[in-house]
Amino acid sequence: MDSSYFALLVHDRPYPLGALKHALNPLSVQTLSVRTCEELKRLILQEHPHIILSDTSLPDGTWEDVVNLAKNSPVAANVIVVGANDDMKLYVSVLERGAFDFVVPPFEHQSLDFVVMSAGRNASLRRQTLVVGAAS
């Protein structure tokens, strides 16, 4: 599997994103963690992540702020919101507001692989489309 994707994890508490970081290791997804939306705002422009995995709540914002930062980024990135437990209302809200997906523990390899690789491929394709469109 070619997984040359880079992910920023936005969280300030060990659960559930700490567990997710360990679950990403077998997928060979490179990761970097940040604690706040402000840190994300700086690094999204420097690191150009394919995927941003966000906790639902952050010291200076929420997952909605993370989605907005990704939408306004000059480089395509997909946001996957990570909840602590199943919450259908939150799941629907996350998708309606533009996140790529919503995941909760336990992070099973097969389903996590599908979501993360799909988000990475989608971001890569959108980036290629922007480059091709700009060249025309």
Model description:
With 136 residues, this protein is of the alpha/beta class. It has one domain (6-135): Response regulator (Rossmann fold, 3-Layer(aba) Sandwich). 47% of the residues lie in helices and 20% in strands. The chain has five helices and seven strands, in the order βαβαβββαβαβα. The strands form two sheets. The chain has a five-stranded parallel beta sheet, with helices on both faces. The longest helix has 27 residues, at 109-135. It is globular, with a radius of gyration of 14 Å. It starts with 5 loop residues before the first strand and ends with a helix. The model has no long low-confidence stretch (mean pLDDT 91).
Helix count from the secondary structure assignment: 5
Query: Reading side by side through the largest sheet, how are the strands ordered?
Result: 2-1-3-6-7
Task: Classify the secondary structure makeup into a structural class.
Answer: alpha/beta
Low confidence ranges: none
Q: What coarse outline follows from CA principal-axis ratios? A: globular
Q: Could you say what the CATH topology is called?
A: Rossmann fold
Radius of gyration: 14 Å
Helical coverage, percent range: 40-55%
What's the overall average pLDDT, rounded? Answer: 91
Question: Which structural traits does this protein have?
Answer:
alpha/beta, Rossmann fold, 5-stranded parallel sheet, 20% strand, 7 strands, two-stranded antiparallel ribbon, 136 residues
Question: Can you summarize this structure?
Answer:
This protein is an alpha/beta fold.
Detail the topology: elements first, then pairings.
Blueprint: E1 6-10, H1 17-24, E2 30-34, H2 37-47, E3 51-55, E4 57-58, E5 61-62, H3 63-71, E6 78-82, H4 88-96, E7 101-103, H5 109-135
Parallel strand pairs: 1-2, 1-3, 3-6, 6-7
Antiparallel strand pairs: 4-5
